[in-house]
Automatic annotation (TrEMBL):
Pathway: Cofactor biosynthesis; molybdopterin biosynthesis. This is Molybdopterin molybdenumtransferase. It holds the Pfam family MoeA_N. It catalyses: adenylyl-molybdopterin + molybdate = Mo-molybdopterin + AMP + H(+). CDD domains: MoeA. Its cofactor is Mg(2+). GO terms for cellular component: cytosol. Belongs to the MoeA family. One of its GO terms (biological process) is Mo-molybdopterin cofactor biosynthetic process. Catalyzes the insertion of molybdate into adenylated molybdopterin with the concomitant release of AMP. Its EC number is 2.10.1.1. Residues 169-314 form the MoaB/Mog domain. Keywords: Magnesium, Metal-binding, Molybdenum, Molybdenum cofactor biosynthesis, Transferase.
Length: 402
C-alpha cells in the first residue's frame, strides 16, 4: 500500500475505535487528549480587576484614602467623589471607582491624600476581556499539556474530560536475541525491547514493565499464546520481527489463528516495508490492534511513525498529524516506486533538514542524532533546496517543536 494511503487508513480505523472519555483531575491530565471543548465557566476575568498596584479612585484628585483592597477580597463600593482605596494587582476594583492610578505615578500630599495624573487608558481588566463564559477556547482533540492544564484551572475546572490513554504491550520475537551483555556467538542484543516502550510512552500510551514480553520462542504455539495473553489487556500490541514469511516468521499464521483482519499489510516505503497493522475483535466486542514492526531497529521506528502514530491519534480522538516541512540542505535519493523516509537532523532556526550518516535499516547510530524523517515521495528524488514533508520523531508529552 502507498505510504500516505496507509497513514490515512490506519488513522480512520483508529478514530472509528476511539477510546472512551474519562474524567481526570488536573494533576493527572497531562499527556491525555481533550474529549470535549474547553470553555470557561465564568467570564475571564470574572470581575473588574486592577492590572497594576496603585489607587482605585473616584472623581478628581487629590483623593482622600478610605481603605485598602487586596487580591481575594470583595471591596465595599466607593460612594464619594474625591476618595480612594489602595489596590493590589489582581484585586477586584470597587464599584463606583472611576479609574486606577499607578502607585509609581502617585504622590502623597501634606494632608495625607493621594494625588497624580491619571492615564487615558484604564488600568484595569474588564469581565470577559480574555474570554466570555461558554466560549470555546480549545476544541476536542487538543493534546493536554501544562499550558492547557493552567488554562483549565483559570477557567474553574478541577477535572478534565479526556480520552482514556491506550494501554500498549510489546512482544519481542527472535531466538537470536540477547537481553543482557554484548553480542556474541552469533546472537545479537535486543535493542527494540528497551526502546519501543519509550517511544510508545511518548505517543501517550501506558506501557508497564510487565507489558514487555520476550524474547518469545520462535514457534507458532509460543507466538499464539503470547499474543492472546497480551491482547487480553492491551488496546495495542506491538511485535518486533516476524513480519515476512521466513521459516521462523510466525506472525501471519498467528494473526490468522486469532481471526484478525489486516488494515495494512506491507507498505511501499523504504526502509521498513514489511510493516503491518491488524485489527482483532475480542469476545467482549472491543476492537484491539496488532502492529507488526520489522525486526531491524530503524525499520521498526519507521513503522512506529508511519502506522502507530496515526493509529494512536485516531484512538485518542486527535486530528490526523500534519507533517511540518523543511528545506533539504543536501540531495536525498529517491527509492523508485517506494516512498523514501530519510533520517535528517533539523536546523529549526534555518528551517533546513540535514541528512545524517549511518542510516542502514539495522543501524541505530544515525537515528540517535536525528529529529525525524524527510519524506521523498515515490518516483522523485530530493534536491538541495527542495521543500519536503518531515515526519518528526515523537517528543515527551507536553513538548512542542519550534
Amino acid at each position: 500500500m502507498d505510504w500516505e494511503q496507509a497513514r490515512s487508513r490506519v488513522y480512520a480505523v483508529g478514530l472509528a475505535a476511539a477510546l472512551p472519555a474519562v474524567d481526570k483531575p488536573l494533576d493527572e491530565a497531562d499527556g491525555h487528549t481533550l474529549a470535549e471543548p474547553l470553555s470557561p465557566r465564568t467570564d475571564l476575568p470574572a470581575f473588574v480587576t486592577s492590572s497594576v498596584d496603585g489607587w482605585a479612585v473616584r472623581g478628581t484628585g487629590p483623593w482622600r484614602i478610605v481603605g485598602r483592597v487586596l487580591a481575594g477580597t470583595t471591596p465595599a463600593p466607593l460612594t464619594e467623589d474625591g476618595t480612594t482605596v489602595e489596590i493590589a494587582t489582581g484585586a477586584m476594583v470597587p464599584p463606583g471607582a472611576s479609574a486606577v492610578l499607578r502607585v509609581e505615578e502617585s504622590t502623597r500630599t501634606a494632608e495625607g491624600c493621594v494625588d497624580g495624573v491619571l492615564r487615558a487608558a484604564p488600568e484595569w481588566r474588564l469581565p470577559g476581556e480574555e474570554a466570555a463564559a461558554g466560549e470555546e477556547l480549545l476544541p476536542a482533540g487538543t493534546p493536554v499539556d501544562p499550558s492547557v492544564i493552567g488554562l483549565a484551572a483559570s477557567c474553574g475546572y478541577d477535572t478534565l474530560r479526556v480520552r482514556a490513554q491506550p494501554r500498549a504491550a510489546l512482544l519481542v520475537f527472535g531466538d537470536e536475541l540477547l537481553t543482557a551483555g554484548p553480542p556474541a556467538a552469533g546472537r545479537i542484543r535486543d535493542a527494540l525491547g528497551p526502546a519501543v516502550p519509550a517511544w510508545l510512552r511518548r505517543y501517550g500510551c501506558q506501557v508497564r514493565p510487565d507489558d514487555v514480553i520476550g524474547p518469545v520462542a520462535d514457534t507458532l504455539p509460543a507466538h499464539e499464546e503470547a499474543l492472546r495473553a497480551a491482547l487480553a489487556d492491551a488496546d495495542l500490541v506491538c511485535t518486533t520481527g516476524g513480519t515476512m514469511h521466513g521459516p521462523v516468521d510466525h506472525l501471519h499464521p498467528t494473526l490468522a489463528a486469532l481471526g484478525a483482519d489486516y488494515v495494512v499489510n506491507t507498505v511501499a516505503v523504504r526502509p521498513g516495508f514489511p510493516m503491518l497493522l491488524a485489527r482483532v475483535v475480542g469476545t467482549d466486542g472491543r476492537v484491539r490492534f496488532v502492529a507488526g514492526l520489522p525486526g531491524n531497529p530503524q525499520s521498526a521506528v519507521i513503522a512506529l511513525v508511519s502506522l502507530v502514530a496515526p493509529l494512536l491519534a485516531g484512538l485518542g480522538g486527535r486530528p490526523m498529524p500534519v507533517l511540518p516541512h523543511a528545506t533539504l540542505a543536501e540531495a536525498v535519493p529517491g527509492r523508485g516506486n517506494h516512498t523514501h523516509l530519510a533520517l535528517v537532523r533539523l536546523d529549526r532556526a534555518a528551517g533546513t533538514a540535514h541528512p545524517v550518516r549511518h542510516v542502514g535499516s539495522a543501524m541505530l547510530r544515525g537515528l540517535s542524532g536525528a529529529d525525524g524523517f524527510a519524506v521523498i515521495r515515490p518516483g522523485t528524488s530530493g534536491a538541495a533546496g527542495d521543500r519536503v514533508p518531515v515526519v518528526p520523531l515523537p517528543l515527551l508529552p507536553g513538548e512542542r517543536t519550534c
